Task: inverse folding
């Protein structure tokens, strides 16, 4: 829980009242026998769930032992980009706003509480937190809540 309490604010946390939500993520994802590298920028108009995504991919890295380097971050800027527009209603948030900032309530929104005793429940929560973080901007309180959800799994 101490880690969650140390989550600081970012300049984006102060950007309230805008008609859209902006999210920028970079991911290195393990596939069967390779690492995929993706840069995603997403703008979602909150009023009607329209928007666009700009995706840039670096070539896959064979094997599973690759670790991201600082140089890779800069390579995304020159990678080919794909722009995907979304019409009204086509770019829904992962969870409906406002997101719960209480860890128990957030966990219930991410995975059915009645499955808490099942072996797959921890994976469901981790998948939910990951999905939320890569699909929706999280403010400081929401980032703290997602960490508290993960702490429950420890």
Result:
């Amino acid at each position: 829980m101490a880690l969650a309490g140390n989550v600081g604010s970012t300049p984006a946390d102060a950007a309230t009242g805008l008609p859209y939500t902006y999210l920028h993520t970079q991911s290195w994802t393990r596939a069967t026998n390779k690492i995929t590298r993706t840069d995603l920028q997403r703008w979602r108009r909150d009023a009607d769930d329209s928007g666009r995504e700009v995706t840039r991919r670096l070539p896959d890295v064979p094997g599973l032992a690759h670790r991201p380097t600082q140089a890779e971050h800069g390579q995304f800027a020159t990678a080919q980009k794909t722009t995907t527009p979304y019409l009204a209603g086509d770019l829904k948030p992962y969870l409906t706003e406002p997101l719960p900032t209480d860890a128990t309530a957030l966990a219930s929104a991410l995975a059915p509480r009645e499955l808490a005793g099942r072996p797959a429940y921890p994976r469901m929560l981790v998948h939910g937190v990951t999905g939320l973080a890569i699909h929706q901007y999280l403010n400081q309180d929401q980032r703290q809540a997602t960490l508290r959800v993960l702490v429950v799994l420890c």
